Design the sequence.
């Protein structure tokens, strides 16, 4: 499990609007890579291009290459459904399925993509996924209750459990803690620490301390002005980006002297 | 040290509203019964205006302009509501009183076979069978078509030319007068293919009226399903049609069912298209594919057109039964919607 991602000359469009220009970077397997940068610089767009969620926006497309262990995610015969089964995603706002119980939420990916399993196996998947998401202890007595009845932080961990239940190679997280309190945030950061032994993780965050805490590699994106495309400014070891950035823009941003 | 309260102002006492209302009604009654001549609805109007003016003025003097405006607008809004409710309640009460007096087992199960306009008795059994079959046929055809059209519009066709055209034609269909729907089935199906008038033809005419209602209500319900749910499901690698079937539809199902029931209730009261497509029968006809059937609305129309006292009583009875039928559908819609509503804690 766990694969490398290479972005090569990636341009991201919304209709005629070029939102992100010429991104080339590598995400290493079994590591956490953080995307940081000001609002609107295209972090989410890059993330969503990796698992082909970007093209769900009408008129949106990309040019360039996204390689998953040298296999082009945008290749001619590639099925986006299979891409998304391999590259899981956690969103900014927890979005458990409101009609489903906690149990059904966790197994939704398996059940609804019709890879049939015996219910005994599903029970195992639920326990394993909820344990990996550090949620098992809190919900083990009520997995048949609605997922929407959990607190925000628990819902977000439920969504993480849901994402890892399908055993992806890569986990993309778009500001997974921005709607959460500090304690839930810590719980999820601990979780990311544990998950990075198994998965390739990319996390978008506005919280510089968080990037410093959880990631080994950091990529800084920036945008000159509204309406211009965002760019990758610098990528490197997290410690280097925060202590000794090569580019002036990065230094201004991470030291808070921005704009 | 005393503090001057700055957060409280003078307010009208709580009893002000009932007292002013009682005074206004009293004035109205005096005008009505102590008056010089009968004044029709004028005393009620006078009492209402008097109430609004008196309370707002009192409020202005005591509480100031902002509260007075608030009370004035509040009274106007409530007044408009009451005015709108008057015809509705009036109809319901009249139909209930006049219809209830002819209600009995024979009326519900009986038919009009061998019962002339001057004779008492007879019943709506045959009309009830007709309504159930015709509306059932219309629902069977238009619910799948309507719901699937809405799914195409919302889930697949956002911003596409085809769906803009579909949407346009649905709007056009919404505006089709019901008699035109009947006329269309009459010429396109009955005359062209030489079928006889039948409950099925009536069902087809009702279908034309029902589809746009179902499309619009289902569309509305699908649009309020948050996009984040679709994205969450797609990001799990679930194929799109399964996302729609197992995530989007269950989330919207209670609203879709309510809309479907309201659409059924709406066509259950149609009269004109039935007259052209199935006309009338005085006896029960269980075969919807051959021969005329009477439905509840056409039963009412038929009885009224006879003009005799027993026939008009039967018409009221039919109207009462039709309203009860629709009410049962509304109630069923509420219950089903509650059962299917997304689970919440
Ligand atoms: N659905 C969309 N349609 C059109 N333009 C979009 C869409 N989503 C994003 N954009 C544009 O693409 C650019 C990058 O947006 P993106 O959401 O990727 O930024 P971001 O770095 O994630 O910002 P934030 O930190 O606020 O989440 C912005 O200029 C934005 O206006
Ligand atoms: Mg974003």
Sequence:
């Amino acid at each position: 499990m766990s694969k490398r991602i290479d972005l090569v000359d990636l341009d991201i469009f919304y209709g005629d609007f070029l939102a992100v220009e010429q991104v080339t970077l590598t995400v290493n397997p079994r590591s956490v890579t953080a995307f940081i940068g000001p609002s609107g610089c295209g972090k989410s767009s890059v993330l969503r291009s990796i698992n082909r969620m970007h093209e769900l926006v009408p008129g949106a497309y990309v040019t360039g290459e996204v390689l998953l262990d040298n296999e082009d995610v945008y290749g001619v015969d590639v099925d986006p459904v299979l891409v998304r089964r391999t590259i899981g995603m956690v969103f900014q706002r927890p979005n458990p399925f409101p009609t489903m119980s906690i149990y059904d939420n966790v197994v939704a990916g398996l059940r609804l993509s019709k890879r049939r399993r015996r219910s005994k196996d599903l029970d195992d998947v639920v326990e394993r996924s909820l344990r990996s998401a550090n949620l098992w202890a809190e919900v083990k007595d009520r997995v048949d209750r609605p997922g929407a009845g959990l607190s925000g932080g628990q819902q977000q961990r439920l969504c993480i459990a849901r994402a890892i239940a399908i055993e992806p190679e890569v986990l993309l997280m778009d500001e997974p803690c921005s709607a959460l309190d500090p304690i839930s945030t810590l719980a999820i950061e601990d979780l990311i620490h544990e998950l990075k032994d198994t998965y390739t993780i990319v996390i978008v965050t506005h919280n510089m301390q968080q990037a410093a805490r959880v990631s080994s590699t950091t990529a800084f994106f920036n945008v000159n002005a509204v309406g211009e495309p965002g760019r990758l400014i610098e990528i490197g070891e997290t410690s280097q980006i925060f202590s000794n950035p090569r580019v002036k823009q990065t230094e201004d941003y991470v030291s808070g002297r921005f704009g | 040290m005393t503090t001057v309260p700055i957060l409280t102002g003078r307010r009208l006492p709580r009893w002000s509203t009932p007292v002013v209302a009682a005074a206004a009604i009293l004035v109205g009654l005096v005008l009505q019964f102590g008056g010089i001549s009968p004044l029709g609805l004028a005393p009620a109007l006078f009492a209402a205006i008097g109430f609004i003016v008196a309370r707002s003025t009192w409020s202005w003097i005591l509480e100031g302009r902002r509260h007075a405006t608030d009370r004035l607008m509040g009274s106007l809004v409530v007044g408009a509501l009451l005015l709108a409710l008057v015809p509705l309640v009036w109809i319901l009460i009249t139909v209930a009183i006049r219809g209830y007096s002819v209600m009995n087992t024979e009326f519900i199960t009986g038919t009009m076979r061998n019962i002339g306009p001057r004779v008492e008795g007879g019943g709506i059994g045959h009309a009830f069978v007709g309504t159930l079959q015709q509306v059932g046929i219309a629902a069977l055809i238009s619910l799948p078509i309507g719901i699937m059209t809405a799914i195409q519009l919302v889930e697949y066709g956002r911003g596409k030319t085809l769906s803009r055209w579909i949407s346009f034609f649905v709007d056009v269909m919404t505006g089709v007068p019901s008699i035109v729907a009947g006329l269309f089935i009459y010429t396109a199906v009955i005359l062209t293919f030489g079928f006889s008038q039948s409950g099925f033809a009536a069902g087809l005419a009702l279908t034309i009226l029902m589809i746009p209602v179902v499309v619009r209500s289902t569309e509305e319900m699908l649009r309020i399903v948050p996009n984040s749910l679709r994205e969450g499901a797609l990001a799990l690698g679930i194929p799109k049609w399964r996302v729609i079937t197992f995530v989007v539809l269950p989330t919207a199902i209670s609203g879709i069912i309510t809309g479907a029931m309201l659409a059924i209730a709406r066509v259950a009261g149609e009269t004109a298209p039935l007259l052209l497509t199935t006309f009338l029968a005085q006896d029960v006809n269980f075969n919807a594919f051959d021969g005329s059937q009477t439905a509840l609305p056409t039963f009412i129309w038929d009885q009224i057109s006879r003009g005799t006292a027993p026939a008009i009583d039967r018409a009221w009875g039919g109207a009462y039964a039709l309203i009860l039928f629709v009410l049962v559908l509304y109630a069923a819609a509420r219950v089903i919607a509650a059962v299917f509503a997304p689970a919440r804690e």
User: Anything to note?
Assistant: Residues 125-340 of chain B form a domain with the MetI-like fold fold (CATH 1.10.3720.10). Residues A 14, 17, 19, 37, 39-45, 57, 230 surround adenosine-5'-triphosphate (ligand 1) (CB under 6 Å). The CA atoms of residues 114 and 282 of chain B lie 8 Å apart. Chain B is about 75% helix and 0% strand.
